[in-house]
Amino acid sequence: MSWAAWLVWGFASTLVLTMLMAGSQSLGLTRMNIPHMVGTMFTPNRDRALLYGVLLHLVNGWAFAMAYIGIFHATRTFSWWFGALVGLVHGAFLLTVLLPAMPALHPRMASELRGPTSVKQLEPPGFLGLNYGFRTPISVVIAHVVFGALLGGLYTYSIAREVSAAAASVPCPSHCEAARP
Questions:
Q1: How far from the centroid of its chain's Cα atoms is residue 109's Cα?
Q2: What span, in angstroms and rounded, lies between the C-alpha atoms of 120 and 109?
């Protein structure tokens, strides 16, 4: 595993994912703001929550990048398309399992069953995040597929360069020199 490639490309892929999600919210494709949702788990201050959420989202992105790279190595499949496939599975898991479970984890999120209170004011995402708009699942899946494809492609390129550089630095044995014209 290339730690440098994980650090650089994991961070770059996370930035792209975050920008795609923020862009889809700004364009009105979804009302979901993951950094804000995550940040309000730690503070009721909405401005500070956004800062905490962005930082935590970047750290989580790095952690997920490590998981993706672990999957690449475990399967010995290194490509952009395999990264996109892992991103598709990741996005589907997020939409079908994690988002519906958020009210149970989040101290300031209302429940689908109980509704808002004076403390629990955030709307729950619901299944597929549909409470935040019918295009939410599309933007989440696209962002995660792009994350995986970008990470898979860039990581594959990096390790291919490392392998070729390592091969070029290996000295030729004496019997290779004798065979040269």
A1: 23
A2: 5
